């Protein structure tokens, strides 16, 4: 894609990115008019939305603009399960051109629908995400996200094509082939989960290929939480810039938000997805900058509008303008989901806290697993960490020193004593998609 005419061009040269640089007042006016339309559509076409609004005594006319959004009722994941499969659709199947589904851990999956226009919006926001990473036509994008019902593969695929990049739709798995193509095709960007990229790094090392010597320069990583400590490990091991991407099936898939070259929060494509932060207990909107649960409203989705969808992701909105020049707001990286929280001996523990503690210590590898058991009615937490081969080759004292250093650091961050077990490289199971960082064997 080439920069458009002068009046179409956005500061980064892509007409599609223009909304990213819109003056805030103009953006708000756009959000207001889109919200009015989507609320009307949801009310007219989806019984669940109509019932909820009726219960609150509001009609679409009540919502005059974006400032009224907090008057609307919430929706949540169980609403999608309860209306399985098509109960949340606002378009007849004749207008639905794509279905995706996310596998629930229990029971039925949640199903989402897209019209042709919805798919165009999705490709547009993904394109804008990739532009933010510094990618353009001529880049070779290896898409190792799974293709299928999961939104990761196709979401990134169409965005990268819309950008004019060359897409390799390799999907997940067959890691040796991934590395061979990465080298032979001169791949400049890879898209996958951060844990799968760690596996690629391991595998490349075994094959005697140093990723730092390849043209690869950008990683687009998401679909699982990862920390800045992990980012630093990945960036130095592969000599790339590793960027976060945010999205969820219920809203559209990847491309709800993305980091820019500043790597300091994720811009939300808020001309299509309106963000709010609420207190997850009181459900009241929090003042600007407050940390709480992210709630998203789709402002343009036709087949399945989501009104104030509770994401369970914990973050905050960044008020300051970004150095990149984009005016759309940012959220801080999501390192915690209310669903991920472990309660260990009554204390709230997040896996990301443990990850940060582990990776702060030299000699560790970015492969770990948190195991929870119960002994005599008391929760036990064990953290298995892979450490470098040199550590094992060294004297026993070195290893013991590392172990106690890690144990102390973890206890300091989570406030609970954890047993630390150091294991050799490659002894923990590797993941082709999302890593299983937590094994909870405490039973019911
Ligand atoms: Zn920015």
Can you offer a commentary on this structure?
- It is a single chain.
- The chain contains eleven helices and 21 strands.
- With 444 residues, it is of the alpha/beta class.
- The strands form five sheets. The chain has a nine-stranded mixed beta sheet, sandwiched between helices. A four-stranded antiparallel beta sheet has the order 10-11-12-15.
- α9 packs antiparallel against α11.
- The chain is globular.
- Residues 1-6 have low confidence and may be disordered.
- Residues 260, 262, 267, 322, 324, 326 line the site of zinc ion.
Short description:
The protein is of the alpha/beta class and 444 residues long. The protein has helices at 24-45, 47-55, 77-82, 116-132, 151-163, 175-184, 194-206, 228-238, 351-359, 389-393, 396-414; strands at 96-102, 110-115, 140-143, 166-168, 189-192, 218-221, 241-248, 253-259, 266-268, 273-278, 292-298, 309-315, 317-318, 330-331, 336-337, 342-344, 347-349, 364-375, 378-387, 419-423, 438-440.
């Amino acid at each position: 894609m080439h920069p458009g005419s002068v009046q179409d061009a956005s500061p980064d040269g892509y007409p599609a990115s223009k909304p990213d640089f819109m003056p805030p007042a103009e953006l708000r006016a756009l959000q207001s008019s889109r919200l009015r339309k989507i609320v009307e559509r949801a009310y007219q076409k989806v019984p669940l939305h109509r019932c909820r609004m009726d219960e609150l005594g509001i009609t679409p006319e009540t919502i005059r603009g974006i400032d009224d959004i907090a008057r609307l009722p919430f929706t949540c994941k169980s609403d999608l399960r309860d209306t399985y499969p098509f109960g949340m659709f606002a378009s007849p199947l004749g207008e639905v051109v794509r279905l995706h589904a996310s596998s629930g851990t229990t029971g039925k999956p949640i199903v989402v629908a897209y019209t042709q226009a919805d798919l165009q919006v999705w490709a547009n926001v993904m394109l804008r995400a990739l532009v933010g990473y510094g990618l353009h036509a001529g880049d070779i994008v290896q898409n190792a996200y799974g293709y299928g019902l999961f939104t990761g593969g196709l979401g990134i695929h169409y965005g990268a094509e819309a950008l004019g990049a060359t897409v390799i739709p390799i999907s997940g798995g067959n890691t040796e082939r991934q590395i061979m193509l990465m080298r032979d095709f001169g791949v400049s960007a890879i898209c996958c989960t951060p844990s799968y990229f760690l596996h690629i790094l391991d595998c490349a090392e075994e094959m005697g290929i140093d990723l730092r010597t390849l043209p690869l320069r950008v990683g687009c990583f998401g679909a699982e939480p990862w920390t800045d400590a992990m980012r630093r490990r990945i960036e130095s091991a592969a000599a790339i810039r590793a960027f976060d991407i945010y999205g969820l099936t219920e809203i559209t898939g990847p491309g709800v938000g993305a980091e820019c070259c500043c790597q300091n929060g994720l811009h939300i494509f808020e001309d299509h997805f309106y963000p709010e932060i609420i207190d997850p207990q009181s459900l009241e909107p929090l003042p600007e900058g407050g940390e709480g649960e992210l709630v998203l409203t789709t402002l343009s989705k036709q087949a399945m509008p989501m009104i104030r969808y509770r994401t369970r992701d914990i973050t905050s909105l960044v008020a300051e303008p970004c150095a990149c020049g984009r005016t759309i707001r940012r959220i801080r990286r999501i390192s915690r989901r209310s669903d991920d929280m472990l309660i260990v001996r009554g204390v709230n523990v997040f896996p990301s806290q443990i990850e940060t503690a582990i990776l702060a210590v030299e000699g560790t590898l970015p492969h770990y697993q948190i195991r929870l058991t119960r002994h005599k009615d008391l929760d036990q937490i064990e953290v298995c960490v892979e450490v470098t081969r040199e550590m094992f080759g060294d004297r026993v004292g070195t290893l013991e020193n590392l172990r106690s250093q890690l144990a102390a650091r973890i206890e300091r961050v989570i406030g609970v004593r954890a047993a630390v077990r150091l294991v050799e490289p490659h002894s923990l199971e590797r993941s082709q998609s999302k890593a299983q960082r937590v094994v909870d064997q405490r039973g019911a």
